[in-house]
């Protein structure tokens, strides 16, 4: 049934559909209306996208104010360097070369102090080396006569650029001098090319180096004096955070498996923490790389063993792989009977809590940079609980005799003719629990690996020994 | 006892130590000799380091000739662009701005075509946008009078640099436009700063853009015409290689556990293949990111679903986590008795070989870009073997009655007074095997996850359906 009605000033056709509602019949001729609506959709879509983008940006600003300060610092450094450019006496001295100071600030200023220092040192050294080499090659080319000069220069550019590019592929070189090699190629090409035209090479080199020095010093001062972000400190916090996350997700995982579904909602966020550990390899490596360039800061001296943090990170990832598998087993379809779970509930929960205690104790060691006397005892507790779990596994067959439900018996009897009593043990049903138990044992073993690496760090970085009274009896 | 003897022309004091040997007593006055020796050590050390470095470089060159060609290409592009600089008529037209062409080539030329294109587009667009904006701001500042001009310019540099730096923190922007934002800050600062001095801004902008255009076209031509390295192709090969490695390490792992130690040597290299899968996340992401910029090449069209490769990679990593845990369990201290292993040997080996067959079949699908009719049947076989393994686990208790060795019985009897027959099942002893079995079942489930993602890719990329005859009966 169709009816026409007047609504909001224009004629509209509505059709009543069987479920009781009515639909508007849009006249086919309304191309303008159609395109209007389409345009409206596009505008709404774009507005929504911009809104969500700004929302995301706002969240980053609120959650990580350091990043927000970094942006202000970049603006400040650039304003400083362009202020220098506006001062006429300086400008008259340096001419158009002053743009190199601006360029240096833009390219060299990085989020962490270490990265900035790394780029500064790379840029300064590479410019100096390539400049000297360029002038040398230029002199040699000059001696070869006017005909051979371009050939010598071209050949040298080809060879040095190819060689420097090749070095950038070698991992150990790439980690430290990638930017330096890029600047080396750039400066060498510019010097050897421009040298063919401009005769006052030495003056240019002098100006270039001093403008770069100005840019570099503005960068270093700004990045070190105003809210500095130290790569070392970031690496240290990352490892600490990851230790906590690992402990939380281990606890969450085991709790989710052994307790009722009621608490699942709360733990689901904590549970995913191990994924951060799995994905933080690249960040750890770059931070450790930059931290090496940093001077002493906070509780870290210049030769702090940053490489050891990578080993700790790697042993933590080893543990996270196991938690990932555990998580997979827990959410698998085959679930153990509740009665069996109850048998293991207590000891597994205790093992996971002791294991995560060890992780938390390691976190305390890291945070206070003090050898904790409690680590050893909590590792002992963990290992003791591992033994308890093993004996719980040993005693399982006795328990099974008590647990075996009539339903299981029936299904087993249906398939095979059981010759003797033991045939009633439904091994497939206990498999999930034993796998969880055996993964927990493996996780405990891998946590000991983390303990070893943290101990090694404590030795290398000369952590203070624990004051026995203070650490054994915390204030309540 | 000490004695003096003449050896090789100089006086030497030797002291006989209790173990029968004698030590040379070095006279304290021989500072020159000492420092000579130290210098010698240093020289030898440096030589060895340089040698090992060159050896490593040589290995990279031999193993990955593509990287070697890339270096030649960079050299070639730079020679080309500096050749352009040498031509006097061009030089006279562009003046010192010609260095921007050289700079563009050095900074923009990357290993893969996609990365080069990404940087080229970023650089060109950012220069254009920032240039226009810079000229606009400069005009506004001009209108404000001589006193306010520097203030307006400084403020605009500060605000735009801070905003652009902030956008670089947003992951989705960083992935695609990081370089563009850097160039935006650079160009805007340069234009607004130099605009204060140079009045012929438009001419400069024109020259800058055309030199960048020259640099960009040289880069694109060189990187696309001479031995191009496509990011898409690299990603595709990486995923294929990883599928093979995953299959090999699964096979190797299970074989190492169930067969005798004789074959361990051969498989240890294959066994570690899953580690490549664990560590290739960053590479996959950057390759997929660059591949989106590439035109159609090889069997890939412009809108090839590169993002789906990331999903395949992620599901492969999921599987690799499990293999990592499996590897840990296999090398754990508690080992199952040989008799038990034999019971599972056959079915576990078959499951691992069927599982790795599925992986290899997926590899074939990817390689031929043809939907394989065999995948489905090999998944069926795998799942069938999973069921077989499950029934082997079910039947384990009967077997245990046969296997239980007198030694085990004795040890069990010693600890506990067994009330009935079933108490003799040594569950702790069978735990390693059941864990391995249950991990194999979990791995099979995760392999199905990979199958789903590859199927999705086959749909999205419209792989050809298999020709039934050809794929079912391969030539022998």
How do the strands of the widest beta sheet of chain A line up side by side? 1-2-3
Class based on secondary structure composition and strand pairing of chain A = mainly alpha
- How many helices of chain A does DSSP assign? 19
If you compute it from the alpha carbons, what radius of gyration of chain A comes out, rounded to the nearest whole angstrom? 34 Å
Which series of helices and strands of chain A comes N to C? EEEHHHHHHHHHHHHHHEHHHHEH
Average pLDDT of chain A, rounded to a whole number, is 79
User: How large is the share of residues in beta strands of chain A?
Assistant: under 5%
Number of strands of chain A: 5
Helix content of chain A: over 70%
Quote the distance from N terminus to C terminus of chain A.
Answer: 77 Å
Regions with little confidence, pLDDT below 50 for 5+ residues of chain A: 1-9, 401-423, 469-476
Q: What is the subunit arrangement here? A: homodimer
- Overall 3D form of chain A: elongated
Specify the biggest β-sheet of chain A.
3 strands, antiparallel
The chain pair with the largest interface is: A-B, 94 and 93 residues
Pfam family, one (chains A, B): ALMT
Protein name (chains A, B): Aluminum-activated malate transporter 10
GO cellular component, one term (chains A, B): membrane
Keywords (chains A, B): Ion channel, Ion transport, Membrane, Transmembrane, Transmembrane helix, Transport
